[in-house]
Amino acid sequence: MKFRHLHLVSILTASLFTAPLARADDHDETPLGEQMEMISDAFKLVRRQVEDASANASTLEQLATIRAAAEKGLAFEPAYAAEKPAAERTAFIAKYREDMRTFIATIDEVAAALTAGDNPLATELVAKMRSAQRSGHKAYRAPKD
């Protein structure tokens, strides 16, 4: 019986120490990575509460956080750009910025839908944002080895 409790305590302790390490790998430790981390944290809340009209004020606050971080992210280049050949790098960075501007425009559409009380439309647009987030990560993050 004591061994089972000791085993459980050791597993819980190990998970407490490894969870922050796993989270740290989600985004690069760069200025852009910091902005992406803010977007990710706020976006999780948006996805959870976008359908709930009573949470619209909170959702709008999270969208403002996402928008501000995305705007700041425009000033940076993905670290993966450095791995691209010089001939491709400029186009790669331009495409990243174009995709970020499209993402920001979608944020504005979601905010407008929520302000109008159209949560079903906002939910559809958040799904569009999620798709853009996933494709952006695939395109602009270095592949994991």
From TrEMBL:
<dbReference type="GO" id="GO:0042597">
    <property type="term" value="C:periplasmic space"/>
</dbReference>
<dbReference type="InterPro" id="IPR009155">
    <property type="entry name" value="Cyt_b562"/>
</dbReference>
<feature type="signal peptide">
    <location>
        <begin position="1"/>
        <end position="24"/>
    </location>
</feature>
<dbReference type="GO" id="GO:0020037">
    <property type="term" value="F:heme binding"/>
</dbReference>
<protein>
    <submittedName>
        <fullName>Cytochrome b562</fullName>
    </submittedName>
</protein>
<keyword id="KW-0732">Signal</keyword>
<dbReference type="InterPro" id="IPR010980">
    <property type="entry name" value="Cyt_c/b562"/>
</dbReference>
<dbReference type="Pfam" id="PF07361">
    <property type="entry name" value="Cytochrom_B562"/>
</dbReference>
<dbReference type="GO" id="GO:0009055">
    <property type="term" value="F:electron transfer activity"/>
</dbReference>
<dbReference type="GO" id="GO:0022900">
    <property type="term" value="P:electron transport chain"/>
</dbReference>
<dbReference type="GO" id="GO:0005506">
    <property type="term" value="F:iron ion binding"/>
</dbReference>
<comment type="similarity">
    <text>Belongs to the cytochrome b562 family.</text>
</comment>
